[in-house]
Amino acid sequence: MGEQYPHYIEFRHVYKTFDYPVLVDCCFHIDPGKTVAIIGRSGVGKSVTLAHIMGFLKPDQGRVIVSHQDVTDYRESQLRAIRKKVTMVFQSGALFDSLTVAENILFSLELREDYDAENKEAVVRGLLEMVDLYDFRDAYPTDLSTGYKRAVAISRALAAQPDCILYDEPTTMVDPIMSDHLTSLMLRLKKQLRMTSVVVTHDLELMRRVADEVVFLFEGQVIYFGPVKDLNQVDHPHVREFLAMDRVDFGNGDSNK
Description:
α5 (about 145-160) runs parallel beside α6. β9 and β10 form a beta hairpin. The chain contains eight helices and ten strands. The chain has a domain at about 1-85 and about 165-175 and about 195-255: 3-Layer(aba) Sandwich (Rossmann fold), CATH 3.40.50. It has helices spanning about 45-55, 75-85, 100-110, 120-130, 145-160, 175-195, 205-210, 235-250; strands at about 10-15, 20-30, 35-40, 60-65, 70, 85-90, 165-170, 195-200, 215-220, 220-225. A six-stranded mixed beta sheet has the order 6-7-8-3-9-10, with helices on both faces.
């Protein structure tokens, strides 16, 4: 790690425009072992931010630091090495439908250079037990609910032994029980493995439980970057409106969590 790039992930004045500006002078950083949530309304650039971290997109201006390296101008061959350290859990789960749950995880294991075929059953068992899904090892993705697919996707991501996991809306379109299960799982991984994590979410309950810091995006700009505990003191009208809507939603349901 060089002194030049002390943070595990950092956006330095990042701009990205498609038909309209999506990211505007974005600056934030994530230190090793920390979890940062990226929140804001739909279309403010949350998923585009993840795509820049993975190297799927390049910024129009600015620098993107990942794994203590400036990856802005990296070629695809160089990015592949970064993606062994940083993995992403997609909303869809992105599992192979023709493979069982166990086989999906084995596929990821076989990409590891230290993979030992002799202990594959023990490794798969350990990974599935970590996400409480060992009983589903012989099921196919089409047999699973959205939430279970995401839990399997997290297990498969862990098989590659990454330093960092990116979660794209992990609790969207799942029932409250599965949402709580996924949130507890992410918290356990953070505490036990001390993984660096980025969570794109609309779920403020998830944010409050797992994140150390939060990046609040509005119209492509970072209007708040700081500790989650200080978010309620932010005076920006769009932050206050966002938090107020969340309180209204909780008021219509069970808010005794």
